[in-house]
């Protein structure tokens, strides 16, 4: 499969499946209140490829012969693609009596984990500072 075709297929699948409706569901209506889910979508990826000589080309071998795709040819090809997709609910829009209000969803676990990361960072920096102070004395 050609790289352009692969990228096109990935794009089409993302458009089809990676949207708020397919992940979080349809707009919900309860007692005259409409609730529209809102999500955060992050996609990261990378890829690469290459072609190169496996061995050295002999003097009698032409450039085209050395680049042959035949079995036993003296070239190698490789490639790869990696991707990660992260989807999180971040809130919802509530529509009631013609008024719309955005309500944020707070992920308490993420808040606590981020606070712990900051605390650990501060402890490490403090420890490094005290090591340098001891060496100066």
Characterize the structure shown.
The protein has helices at 3-17, 20-24, 63-66, 108-136; strands at residues 28-30, 33-53, 75-96, 99-104. Strand 1 and strand 2 form a beta hairpin. It is flat. With 137 residues, the chain is of the alpha+beta class. 39% of the residues lie in helices and 38% in strands. It is built from four helices and four strands. A four-stranded antiparallel beta sheet has the order 1-2-3-4. It has two domains: 3-105, no CATH class; 107-137.
Strand order within the widest sheet?
A: 1-2-3-4
Residue runs with pLDDT of under 50 for 5 or more positions: none
- Tally of helical runs: 4
Rounded Rg:
28 Å
Mind describing the biggest β-sheet?
Answer: 4 strands, antiparallel
Percent helix range: 25-40%
Order of helices and strands: HHEEHEEH
Global mean pLDDT:
80
What does the overall shape look like?
flat
Secondary structural class: alpha+beta
Classify the beta-strand content into a percent band.
35-45%
For the record, the count of structural domains works out to 2
End-to-end Cα distance: 65 Å
* Total DSSP E strands: 4
Question: Care to give the gist of this entry?
Answer:
The protein has 137 residues and is α+β, with helices and mostly antiparallel strands. It contains 4 helices and 4 strands, in the order ααββαββα.
What are its keywords?
single chain; 137 residues; alpha+beta; 4 strands
């Amino acid at each position: 499969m050609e790289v352009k075709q692969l990228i096109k297929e990935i794009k089409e699948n993302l458009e089809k499946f990676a949207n708020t409706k397919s992940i979080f569901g349809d707009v919900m209506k309860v007692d005259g209140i409409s609730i529209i889910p809102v999500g955060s979508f992050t996609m990261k990826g990378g890829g690469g490829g290459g072609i190169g000589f496996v061995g050295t080309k002999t003097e009698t071998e032409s450039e085209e012969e050395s680049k042959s795709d035949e079995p036993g040819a003296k070239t190698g090809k490789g490639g790869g693609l990696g991707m990660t997709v992260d989807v999180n609910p971040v809130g919802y829009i509530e529509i009631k009596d013609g008024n719309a209000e955005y309500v944020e969803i707070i992920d308490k676990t993420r808040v606590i984990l981020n606070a712990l990361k900051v605390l650990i960072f501060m402890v490490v920096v403090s420890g490094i500072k005290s090591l340098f102070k001891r060496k100066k004395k």
